[in-house]
């Protein structure tokens, strides 16, 4: 990517991310009173990650069929509370196996 | 070396190992999207956030506006504000303004979780150690992924494409299983996200705004229907 295009993006992503982390540690140290805002902040990570995962995950391997296998394995293990690393690695293995199976049949 | 600093480094090692693998996948994706190795590593060294960086890639490649980029990062990373607020009460007297400005940079989900779980207050030596190893792991993994990712056989690269989403699922599913409000929020977010992909008209909205709209709407619906208890969050 051209540097004159890249650098403004880098500055914005790094700057916004830093400010979000920095301001509550330095300037705004008061507790949030509003119950709605505290609830909203508690739920937003799950909302964002859910929207980022679906439907994108089905296109993450270039073949919906192999992706479905990976998602099935990941959902099963994540549902059982396995660690991030275990779930991620198992999903990759499932996709690799599914690719192999598609080549054979 | 200071004993607290060493302990921080030690506590950061498991985090660093997890980061190494996820950032490898990020580096590979970034290289595949046309970023140079240096650019991919610079993103990781300055952002230190998985979801934000993953979301940034298609926006960069697609030529999104800087406003869209800023709002997307704001929505995805808003959770850090809550973590910083919470951690603020856990810092001891050695954490003055300068130290807070430095540590803010590295308040990730995992570093926050480890720092919060320490007994009593935490000080600058411990926190500097705790932020160092994960930062190295995150940057190094990106370097390896973006530089060496293309050397891997095609089927391995394809399979690694799902790694980050596997991690996201491992974050959202256990609480979604145990807590009805989280389940409610995730289902709404996913349903909205599917609409924005497949419903004609809605599918012309660009990716960053889709994340913002789905995230804000689902979290607001959750906050309205299931407000957190007074002592929580």
Task: Describe what is shown at a glance.
Chain A has helices at 3-26, 35-53, 64-79, 84-104. By secondary structure, chain A is mainly alpha-helical. Chain A has a domain at 53-104.
Oligomer: heterodimer
Largest interface: A-B, 77 and 104 residues
What general outline of chain A do the C-alpha atoms trace? flat
Q: What's the N-to-C terminus distance of chain B?
A: 36 Å
- Average per-residue pLDDT of chain A, rounded, comes to 91
Rounded to an integer in angstroms, the radius of gyration calculated over CA atoms of chain A is 20 Å
| Uncertain residue ranges of chain B | none
Strand content of chain A: under 5%
> Structural class given helices, strands, pairing of chain B?
mainly alpha
Task: Write a structural description.
- The complex is a heterodimer of chains A (about 100) and B (about 230).
- Chain A is an all-alpha fold and about 100 residues long.
- Chain A has helices at about 5-25, 35-55, 65-80, 85-105.
- Chain A has a domain at about 55-105.
- In chain A, about 75% of the residues lie in helices and about 0% in strands.
- With about 230 residues, chain B is mainly alpha-helical.
- Chain B folds into two domains: about 5-170, no CATH class; about 180-233.
- Chain B has helices at about 5-30, 35-45, 50-60, 65-75, 80-90, 95-105, 110-115, 125-150, 155-160, 165-180, 180-200, 205-225.
- In chain B, α1 runs parallel beside α8 (about 125-150), α5 packs parallel to α7 and α11 (about 180-200) packs antiparallel against α12 (about 205-225).
- The mean pLDDT of chain B is about 90.
- Chains A and B meet through α1, α2, α3 and α4 of A and α1, α2, α3, α4 and α5 of B.
